[in-house]
Amino acid sequence: MSAAKPAVTPMMAQYLEIKADHPDALLFYRMGDFYEMFFDDAVAAAEALDIALTKRGKHEGSEIPMCGVPHHAAEGYFLTLIRKGFRVAVCEQMESPAEAKKRGYKAVVKREVVRLVTPGTLTEDSLLDARRHNFLAAYVQVRDEAALAWVDISTGSLHVMPITPVRLGAELARLAPSEMLIAEGSESDLAETVSDMGVPLTPVSRGSLDSTSAEKRVSGLFKTNSLAAFGAFERAEIGALGAIVDYLELTQKGKIPILRPPQREAVGGTMQIDAATRRNLELTHALSGGKAGSLLSTIDRTVTAGGARLLERRVSSPSMSLDTVLGRLDAVTYFYENRSAATELRESLKRVPDLDRALSRLSLDRGGPRDLAAVRNGLSQAEQITETAQFDALPALLRDALKNLEGHADLNDLLDQALVSEPPLLARDGGFIAPGFDEDLDESRRLRDEGRGVIAAMQAQYSEQTGIQALKIKHNNVLGYFIETTAKHAETMMSAPLSETFIHRQTTANQVRFTTVELSEMETKILNAGNRSLEIEKGFFETLRQAVLKNAGPIAATARALAEFDLSTALADLAIGENWTRAEVNNSRDFHIQGGRHPVVEAALRQQGGQPFVANDCDLSGGTESSIWLLTGPNMAGKSTFLRQNALIALLAQMGSYVPATQARIGLVSQLFSRVGASDDLARGRSTFMVEMVETAAILNQADDRALVILDEIGRGTATYDGLSIAWATLEHLHEVNQSRALFATHYHEMTALSEKLDHVDNATVAVKEWDGEVIFLHEVRKGAADRSYGVQVAQLAGLPPAVVNRAREVLDQLEKNEREGPAQKALIDDLPLFAASPAPQPVAPSGPSEVEELLDTILPDELSPREALQILYELKDKRG
């Protein structure tokens, strides 16, 4: 007869039941001061977190793996797990062990999952980059319709737009969401599109995407009968919004953050920039992967977290609305021209906390006293700006922002009176309500902190009342506080009228003990003072939290206004400090740049010792001018820098910034395409040349006549004639079909002949100077074509062995000679001894020291006078011959 399996303990039964509801997440099961994990969760978490894996009891005859982390340090572990692709279900104790025991000796503490931690639903400061958004996206396709919605629950922004599948990749590159919701079963359809962005996909049931139920869900959230009040949304857009709201209800367990009404973005409302172009231009991240060295890092002079996030949005999404662009430029110009006002305002903005994220945490009941203080401090700074800043004739954008800084006087007064200046992080720590705000709280604190003094005062009061100086108030664990006096005086206290006040409790051999109603009440107050003061503070925290949430809309508007002021002053400061100019932006096809510079390269040169950046002009305006420049010149001369700087100037102008140039006139650019640099994609079986062709194909298939295209070395990854043919055809297609403004860099000098064939193609070259067999890069872009590529000279600069450089010169000379004489291919190969290269001669070791070396050995520099040193120098020169 087999032994019976051990019964599952009540606690483990509870764990297994909760885990069954969250099979795809690691269950952080709260046990006292720790979160514990069991079974496979423990094994996975221990490996991911590099913590000890232990055992606890047995289940079905096998030992149960277990690991745990302290609950107060859980946020750091959440971040590690999220970055490694896990989701976390946070299971909390919903009652104390003492409350559980009231239901029975073996009763298990009630526990519930209060939150699912996923990449797109983070709100904690420690888990987020304060200067970047953290978007949760949802993609829905309904027959011929498709839509993308996205939300940042840490700030409350909610957006949606119709989209075509071909543009999904570009929009994801713009938003860089941390997580994207898709319909179950569609993972494989989207895998290739999102693989470049590294966006985690989260499948959700198709019911979450149904437009009918989604509209009810979203309307219910905003307490409206329909979504018509916010705009005309297509079915796919409603489905995407509904998926986000449903997912937030699931992960936040019903505690929906405060979201702003959905904003519908129009198709074509922003400059289209695909993932490859963003990567090549290093807009928000450098090619090395970090933020340093990117355009965003170089131009970021914001002083608030909200302003930094706004700058990131503007860099990622330059506007296609001329009115919007001009309005933003007017705001920058105002502070460019009013520098003292800008300086004063920036000092005030430096003291503005992150209002958006504090408000979000409070709405999710995940905030603390410091979030209340952040709201107070932010509103105080907003009020100070409106009272002290000297603004005259503000442009419309700043005028509207200024209005949103006002109207918080009552809430600000309440928070200012209620909170101490530096509150603790957690409400459970207490001590965040200011003294004098509430009499009961002050009394509880006084009893908690000054219990002995209170008792001493009562003792003095009773001594005076009875006339007995020997009367004492004492304490023991049996009676608590009591009044003690000698038997001699006890008779007085037990006689009227004192007997009505003093109640006899105990008589000992030499002492008699009394109490009073007042003393008993005071004893209870003193013993409970700590808990009572904390409960009073928790009550006020909730009251203040609700007061903030009632004003959530105006507070969010103030946060946006402060961010707008921050960004406008930051861009003005940038323009002043870097000598940038305001571009003339219009609806034409103009692209005229004078004295253009690359902002990132210029900053890097300054850090490396102050070498000046060589500015260059560019004119792709079309009409009587050329709309395509064919750029030739050697490597290292600056062709790629020139291409990139003009693309960045266009982007900066349309995001509403001044630009690094002495003058600029730019017609709105609808699309920005860049094919610069070389890389492979081995994981997807793509060579460098294949990646180049895929990106080039995307440009030729999408670019319109308002696009700006920069192409560098098309066709270099294959045979010479193949590459030349592809580059030739690509340039013709850009000119004849796409009709885009373009910069086309190439080493194929044969292509310069196209300037005579194509009306709007002009040749340009990066000038160099050859001196004594070496090439000097001038970094100047001029009209005309390069006579050669100077590749051998560049190779020499790179440090190739002299024998290799000399051999390369021989081969080059023979090739150029044969090309001029036009021999047959076989004759060329026969004439050119490509395989006759002999190894470089080995250096011959000298037989002994030279005459010069012998003389140097006899010299003692420290003992030489200047005249003697000069004489020796002459002697050395004579011996050298």
From TrEMBL:
GO cellular component, one term: cytosol
Domain of life: Bacteria
GO BP term (any one): mismatch repair
Residues spanning the signal sequence: none
GO molecular function: ATP binding; ATP-dependent DNA damage sensor activity; damaged DNA binding; mismatched DNA binding
Residues annotated as binding ATP: G633, P634, N635, M636, A637, G638, K639, S640
Stretches assigned to the DNA mismatch repair proteins mutS family domain: 707-723
InterPro entries found in the cross-reference section: DNA_mismatch_repair_MutS, DNA_mismatch_repair_MutS-lik_N, DNA_mismatch_repair_MutS/MSH, DNA_mismatch_repair_MutS_C, DNA_mismatch_repair_MutS_clamp, DNA_mismatch_repair_MutS_core, DNA_mismatch_repair_MutS_N, DNA_mismatch_repair_MutS_sf
Keywords, alphabetical: ATP-binding, DNA damage, DNA repair, DNA-binding, Nucleotide-binding
UniProt-listed Pfam families: MutS_I, MutS_II, MutS_III, MutS_IV, MutS_V
Biological function: This protein is involved in the repair of mismatches in DNA. It is possible that it carries out the mismatch recognition step. This protein has a weak ATPase activity.
NCBIfam families, alphabetized: mutS1 (TIGR01070), PRK05399.1 (NF003810)
Alphabetized HAMAP family for the sequence: MutS
Protein family: Belongs to the DNA mismatch repair MutS family.
Name of the protein in its database record: DNA mismatch repair protein MutS
Organism: Shimia thalassica
Gene symbol of the encoding locus: mutS
